[in-house]
Amino acid sequence: MGFGTRIGCCCALFLLVFFAGGVHGGEPSVSGRIVSLAPSITETLFAMGLGERIVGTTEHSDYPPEAMDLPTIGQFMRPELERILVLRPAACIGLADSTSPQLVHQLERFGIPTLLVNVSRLDKLLESIGEMGRYLGEKELGTRLQQKYTKRLDFIKKQVSGQTSPRVLSVISVSPLYCAGPKTFIADIVRCAGGEPVGLGDGKAWQGLSREAFLWLKPDIIVFAAHTGGIPDWMRRPPLDGARIMSIDPSLIIRPTPRLIDSAEKMAVFFHDRD
What we know:
Blueprint: H1 3-19, E1 23-24, E2 27-28, E3 34-36, H2 39-47, E4 54-56, H3 81-87, E5 91-95, H4 101-109, E6 114-117, H5 122-135, H6 139-160, E7 167-173, E8 178-180, H7 185-192, E9 196-197, E10 206-208, H8 211-217, E11 221-224, E12 244-247, H9 259-272
């Protein structure tokens, strides 16, 4: 390969890196417009102060209120490729366990990279904030916020350390009846708040329950976070009448976002009757 050819290849490589967003801290990063492929991603990006870079998101992205003004690209589980392409994003960000691999492949064919983050557990959510910061050329911001949220959680844990742990069942749907299993981000914040999350031993994250199974679990506290329907009367009658019920806005607990920390603070107060 001649000298001129080598120079040409180097220039082409430089242009490729430059237009992909450059390099930040030794890692490739993306600058410019972002499409969010999940309401939780949208909310987290706003919490990071990066909301102005979002040019589109899925339906039901309703927090913060500014998110409702963004163009929608379809349903959370079925984003529409055509709508994304019209927005001409530099990149998309989605969820590892829900964003369609087919969509990711289609986006790549059009030269649009996609970052998929794992937020299935609370520690993964914190890691994803640092990961998104690096990806978007905001490494220091992501690291700083990750550390800030970790310190808040550590403070909550310290406040409830040594106290009795009530058995907590987190209800996320009434009809059909579903709860959050012990291996979920919801269970993680229950633990942070000093509770013991209970559920079936089937290993599933989101567990369908019969009323009999619900009674068998014998919760001391029911965290009620169902989107539709009020608290059923049977949850207030024997043998559950001794269980305390904490009703909470579903968006504070069902979405893996930094607002989970606010939920942990509320739970800690409720679980341990702190003022």
